[in-house]
Structure formats: structure tokens, C-alpha cells
Amino acid sequence: MAQKSLNIADNKKVVEELVSTLKDKVLDVKWSGPRRVYVKIAPHSHREFIKWVRDKFPNSSYLVSIDTVDFIDRGEFEIRYKMQIVHNSIKLALIFEMNVPRDYPKVRTITDIVPGAVLYERENYEMFGIIFEGHPNLAKFFLPETWPEGVYPLRKDVNILRKKPKVW
Amino acid sequence: MSSLISLVVGPQHPALHEPERFVFKIEGETIVDVEPRLGYVHRGIEKLMETKEHTEAIYLAERVCGICNVAHTLSYGEAVEEAAGIEVPPRAKYLRVIAHELNRIHSHLLLLGVAAELMGFETLFMLIWRDREIVMKLTEDLTGNRVISAFVLVGGVSRDISPELVYKMRKHLPKLYERVKQYKKMMEEDPTFTARTVNVGYLSKSRMLELGGVGPTARGSSVRMDVRDFDPYAAYDEIPFNVIVYDEGDSWARFMVRVDETLEAINIILYALDHLPQGPIRVRPPRGFEGEGFGRVEAPRGEVFHHTIWRGESKPWRHRIRTPTYANIPAVCEMFKGYHLADAPVILGSIDPCFSCTDRLYVVDVRTGEEKVIPYWYIRKKYWKR
Amino acid sequence: MGIVNWARLRSPWILHFPAAGCNACDIEILAALTPRYDVERFGILLKPSPRHADVLIVSGPVTEQVARRLKRIYEQMPEPKFVIAVGTCAISGNVFQTSPFVYEGVDKVIPVDVYVPGCPPRPEAIIHGVVKLLEKIKGGGNGAKKS
Amino acid sequence: MGRIPSLIKEVFENVFKKPATHMYPFEKPDISEGFRGRPYFVWERCVECGICEYVCPTFAIKLKWTNGRHVPWYDMSRCCFCHECIYNCPSNAILPSKDFELSAYKKYQYEGLPEVPVAPFEKKDVYKPRYINIDYSKCVECRLCADVCPTHAITMTIKDGRVVPQYDADICILCHKCVEICPSEAISSTITFPEKPEKIPKELPPSPLEKIGLIRHRTITFDRNACTGCTLCSRVCPTEAIVMKEIGGRLLPIYDIRKCIFCGQCYEVCPVNAISFEPDLPLGLRRKKKQ
């Protein structure tokens, strides 16, 4: 099958190029399988990485998702931007991990680079309270009007489940 | 701009099959802007996932969306298996492919029928749904229920396929193939269908990539992306198939992608039945483990994406679900612009919307208002643990 | 049994309200209308407007946002009105029970006449539920008393 | 208009065919062999293990004390018909069926239980078929059994200088989690155990650790005069064995030996050396203490 050809060397080359271009912003690179790579990036540098990917592969890359993990024990959020590149033999999922302090969660928006990120950023604002500066319309999307201000349901310290989960 | 009118459609509306609301800003008959409001189907699944072990949570994942339930369980299973480091037996992989493709056929036929109904083409709706019953019967034979299958479990599948069922599938699926080919011809030629879909809801390739559309919606705009192709899961790295791409970028192309995918899915099932390996169908997963896992699955509507983080407990630390309709909403809002209001149901139908997928996160209840106050001891305990 | 009740038995008109469900029950209700099961044999007709409907079919778990709309739709229906809860989610909340924001069943919001369990129920089970409702109306259920 | 006939032909073909409709209420429905319908419980076979309650994703099964037995109460209105309980039942006491005509007028018709028959083992003058048997000469006092026990039938107590599990046969649901988890195979289930075992035997055999020369560190002492009430020990304690309580105007640590796992973290963290081990930690495990 021609379309299933995967060249691992090509994938590695892309990551090497990325690391060499934005050398000082890359903190760590971790491969999980030949098609997926976790790139730990410096705070507030996500725009450069996403711009780099979108500029290099304008017709073969897209933003898969933005999500947040609440590491309450470390006192920080980890925002993950997931990009997918499919270009000839390059088939690579890039995950950019970025730490944000828990008491001051504020990052720049990427909606001017990727307009499709509008809903993901709104969702992360709603569920975790991360403020995306420069977002066109950072309003409620899922939660109803009666939801109290300042309570973000997916944070780990918010306990709103009705029944106790099973003890086993 | 004085003639700009806001028209609210929903939450309960005959053209919408689920409760959601769209505010169309119209000038005369033309849609200028659209503002979606979701959240009516919001059930808090991601939070619930953090309180359930994988034996229970697979049934929760199944009910994110009932139509593409196999895609969600498969995605959940793939994610947890990667996190726990389990390798699924080869027979289970092939059985997963068979269930997944049956699910895809049923979902695509469902949408084509509903789309025909939205256009007022009742005859085609009834004919397609009559033939869809063949797939429903096969799904019921294989998994035990017509829709919600409970077939994929973490570490394998729940039941084996019998030789009689293999024979039955080989007998019935080619029949269905002929029928779908007939419908394809109808949709290409019939003026009732083409008049409502051709050149309606156009979106170019570059715009589609910017807005992050996935699945058949993107493939209708000549974006050649299919998770089965670029990130194969289950047994898709061994099965040959074609990625269907249409270049037109309008609603018609999006429907045709689905018709062709239905035909392709039947071929995949027949290939998988021929090459079904022997062996066990399930391995036992561990209870608590540490790790991170991805599950990316090409659901009928696009890419379903489960990402799970386990930190040594029997419950996940964080479980993230990205569903295809959610990714397609910015694209569909762009598609509406510049077309007549009467075209709106067809355009919305052409992305195969599934809002129960989309609103999975959280929902509010007035009765538990007092519980939202976070007790101090809870924070303290969380902070001071270790 | 008056002539009105007789007419109602011959042709109950149905409004389908999908609450926050996973769509599985919805497509099974739709499947019950299609050639294989064809509930129009019993004169059952799916109506888009609550003003025309005698029977309200609710499927899926009821969330707070949907509950308000569901109540409004129920109030808009003309008397006598009947409600069928289709699917386990509509009866008790199913796997979403622990979520604090899903009601444990439709009957917490509006009165329900017939419950149809199943996840999702087969189209035959839905037909069975409708037939059971018709029996109830015939036997002088709450609908007959009201009219 | 030459394009229309493809559909017209289709329609006319169907006019002469047999209707596709299945006349359900007047005809037997066509249901597959493996259809997942309502599960049925066979009380005679039930060993009251509680696994079905554990695996049920929708809280439809609950074990309740009925007629002297812990039997599963099944609430069909919550059931999602996933058959997970059937796959997991160790004694095949839950049977699948193809029943789907389950609609009812009232919700309470789904709950409840038919009369529970007498368990088969009671007829043979055996009180219960199996008990958990704890061999104290093998027990290494790791307290894993007490952790996994879902009903707290096994709890840790202090006797003869050992922290050992005690077993309450009345609450035990015989889930055998403790048998599975015990690292030293000290817990076993006996099929023909004649009578109810004691909670804890009157005399305990010596610990197996002492035979090979290891000494279990059994006591942690707190020097209350030296304590400053800084609460550090209660914060680091992983098992919440140390709780701070106000006694006589001072905040003092209250120590529960049954929860303690002797990890030594409190010893390490105490700023004024008010915590001491007795006997002292062996050399290999002793941590460096900052002065």
C-alpha cells in the first residue's frame, strides 16, 4: 500500500529541524512510538511552534486539539497543543506541552494563526479558567447561565459529584 | 445593515434531531453570520471519567455517542491499552475492525437517509433505511444489540464470531454493496438530490485546514486525511483500503464521500473475514498502572481522540475526549455564510452533526447549588497529600 | 369510552423529544417509523409541533438545561397528554447517575405513563410500550378521567 | 428528464415485492441468538461474592441483607444491559435472556426481589459454605487484606505485640479479594470449615519475620514535652495515622498504630527529634537525620 508508507527518518528529521530552529525554547523531546512525539516547550512560546508548523506545512497540517491537565500537586497546569502533519511520507503527531502556573493561568491566544482554535480555547477557559489573551469571544459555551463565576468544573479541587463513587 | 434579523433555531425544532440552538443573522434570505449555542446535551463525562475504573468507564465512553459507539470504545480501549502497555491479540484486532466498519456503514446509511428526509426526498429515505436493517441485523448477531454494542473491552473484545455468522455476512454484504451502488447512481443523477446539494456550502481546502475540520467533512474538500491511513490502529496496517477524497468541497461532495466510504467499508469487512487469524480474543488488563496513552480512531464523522493519563491509581488522573463534530463546528459556521436560510438544514446535515458527542463535559443543576462550595479540608487534603 | 377516546386510540400522534441522550434511542425511535417496523400501521404519526401531539416520547437523560425546555414543551401539549420514557437514561439516568447535573429520570420533571427500559430498547420494545399505553388509555387511565 | 427512471424503476420493482414490514405484535419477533436482554438471577447458585455489584457500571445491582443472606438486588430501571455481571459471575448465577418486552406503568415494578430461597448449603447443616482462614504463623502484617476488604470484615488490631488482621465472619461477603492479594499466602478459603471462626485466636504464634531474624518495628513514641505542635508529621503521614488534636491547650499528635506502615517519614521530618522508633531502625533502613 503506497499511502501507508511511513518513513521514520523523515519524521525524525522534522523534529530535529524544529529543535534546531527553536533551540532555546525546547526543554525536552520524548518519543512515544514512531508517529508521536511529546515536545516540552518553554512557557509562552507556543505561538512560535504552532506558527512554525503551520508555515512549513500549510496544506498538510491541522490542529487536533487543545487540552489542559491539572497537576494540582505541582501547582501548575499543563496545556497541550496537538498538531498533526501528513505530508507525503511524514506522518507525525506533535504534542507541545507547556506549563502554566496554577494561580496565574494566562497565555496568548493562537486564534490568529489557527482560526479553528476558537472553540478549544473557549472550552479550556470554561473548564479550567485559563485566560487566553486576545481571544475574540471568551464567553460561556457549554455551562449554563446559572453557573457561578470562578468555579471551573474540571479543576481537581472542585468536588461536585453527587453520589460517592464506589469504594473498592 | 438595518435589515439584519436574528433568527433563533432550536433547541426543539423539526429540522434538528437533537436539542441545540443556532442563532442565524440573516439579511433578507441570506445568512450573514451564525452563532451556535451548545450545552443542552452536556453531561459531565470527562469529570465522571476521573471517578471510574476502566471496567465501568468503557460503558461510559460508549454512551458519549450512541451512533458511533464502537469508535468511542475502540478509542478508549486503544488509549488505556497504550497507557497500561497491553498488546491485544490479533484475532481481537480483526474483530474490532469488523465491528467498527459495520458501525460505519450503519452510521453513513443513517445520515444519507436523514439527509434525504431533510431535502424532502421521502422515498429515498425509506429505501435507504430499509436496507440499513441488513447491517443492523448483522450487528445484532455479532455484538448482541442493534446499536449500543458493548463489544470492545479493554484488552480485547467481549465475544467471538461464529462460523455461521461469517457465512451470513459473506452472503448479505455483497447484496448491500449492490444496493448502495444503486443509491450512488441515484444521488449522482437525480435532480431532486443534486439541486439541493451541488454548490451549496462550499469550503476550500486551505480554509478547511485552518478551521481544523476532520473526517468526511474535510475529505469532501480534497483534504487527504484519514486516521486509519496516517496513524493505523487495530488491524488497519494490514488491511488495504482507499482513502476517499472528493475535490468539489460542497455538500454534494461530502455526501458522496460517505457513499463511497460505505462501499469501501464493505470491502474491508470482506477482506477481514477472509484473513481472520485464530487465537484468543481477550487479555486481562491490570487494575492500576502508570502511563499515558493516545487513542485516535476514524469514527464515521471524523477523528475521535481519547487521551488518558494514569498515575498509578485505579482511576485515571485526566481523560480527554475530542469528538469530530466539535472540530467541525467552526467549519460549518463558515459554510453557512452567504447561503439561503432554506439551505441551512442540508449544510448542517452534510457534516453529520452529532451534538451528544460534542457536549460531553458538564451540566449544571440548581438543586446541588450548595455543593459547589469547595470545602476547605478538601483543598487542604489535596495539597498536602505527599 | 366516548367517540373522542376511540379516535385517540386509533391514531395517537407523537412528538419525539430527544433530551441529552447519546442518540442511540433516537435512531431506534426513528427506525420504528421506517419500513421494517412501520408504526404507522397503528395510525401513529410523528408530529413536529407539541400543539398537535397526544403522546410525548422522551429519550435520554434529562439535564438541567433540557429540563426547562422539556417542561415548556409538556405544558404546550393539549390535554389529555401522555408521556413515554424510552431508554434507561430517561428512566433512571443510566451511567450518568453520578453526575450531579443529570436528573435521575424524566419522572423528576414531568409525570410519566409508560417506561420502556433498554439501552437502547429495540424498535419492537418501543412498539410494545406504545401498545401498552394504548391499553392504559382504553382501560381508563389518567387520560380518560381527564377528558 | 431522462435521468429520473432509475428511481422510478426502483419504486415499481418494489410495488410487486413482498412488503418489508415485520408485523411485530401479531408476529414473533426475529431476535438474534446472542441478544442482550434482561439478566436473571439464580439465587440457589449465588455465593454472595459481590462481584456483580462491583462491575456494574450503572449501580443497578446492590447487595442487601435479605432473609439471612447477602443477595444481589437487581433494579432493572437502572440496568444498561451490558451483561458485564454475567461475564464476571464466578458461579454462573446470572443467566442471560432474550427478554426485551419490559415496559411497565410504574417504576417500582422494576425494583425488588422475589422471595429468596434457602441457600443450598444451609440444608446440609452447614452455616456457610466457606470461610476465610487466616494462618497467623505466616502473616507478615502488611495490612493489604484490610485495605482491599470492601466491607471492612478484616481490620487490623494489636495483640501479643503484633499488628494482625482480625476477621469478622458475619460481615464477610466472601469476595476473596484478600485471598488474592495476600503476599505470603496466609489467607485461604476453606471449603469444609465446620463452624464460624473466632475473630482472632486466643494465642498467637510468633511472627514469621522473627524466625529469620528480622524485627518488626512496632512502636513509635512521641515525646510530648518536646513537641512544638508544628503538624508536620501529620501532613507527611501517607496513611493518616497521625492526627493533630488539641489537648490541654496544645496541639498534639494522636497516633493510630493500626494505620501506621512504619515508613519513617514522620521520624525524618520532625524538626525537634520528638519522634523515636522502638526498637531503632536497622542500619540498612536508617535514614540520615539532620541535626
Mean pLDDT of chain D: 75
Number of helices of chain A: 3
Portion in strands of chain A: 25-35%
User: How many domain units of chain D?
Assistant: 3
CATH domain topology of the largest domain in chain D: Alpha-Beta Plaits
Query: What is the ordering of alpha helices and beta strands of chain D?
Result: HEHEEHEHEHEEHEHEHEEHE
Strand order of the largest sheet of chain A: 1-2-5-4-3
Q: Please describe the biggest sheet of chain D, giving its number of strands, its sense, and whether it closes into a barrel.
A: 2 strands, antiparallel
The total strand number of chain A stands at 7
Which secondary structure elements does this structure contain, and how are they paired or packed?
The complex is a heterotetramer of chains A (168), B (386), C (147) and D (291).
Chain A: H1 8-21, E1 26-31, E2 36-41, H2 46-56, E3 61-71, E4 76-87, E5 90-101, E6 106-108, H3 118-128, E7 131-133
Parallel strand pairs in A: 2-5, 6-7
Antiparallel strand pairs in A: 1-2, 3-4, 4-5
Chain B: E1 4-9, E2 21-27, E3 30-37, H1 45-49, H2 54-62, H3 69-84, H4 90-118, H5 122-143, E4 152-153, E5 156-157, H6 163-189, H7 191-197, H8 205-211, H9 215-219, H10 227-230, H11 251-274, E6 290-299, E7 302-311, E8 318-322, H12 324-336, H13 344-350, H14 355-358, H15 376-384
Antiparallel strand pairs in B: 1-2, 2-3, 4-5, 6-7, 7-8
Chain C: H1 3-10, E1 13-18, H2 24-31, E2 45-46, E3 55-59, H3 64-76, E4 82-86, H4 88-92, E5 114-116, H5 123-138, H6 142-146
Parallel strand pairs in C: 1-2, 1-3, 3-4, 4-5
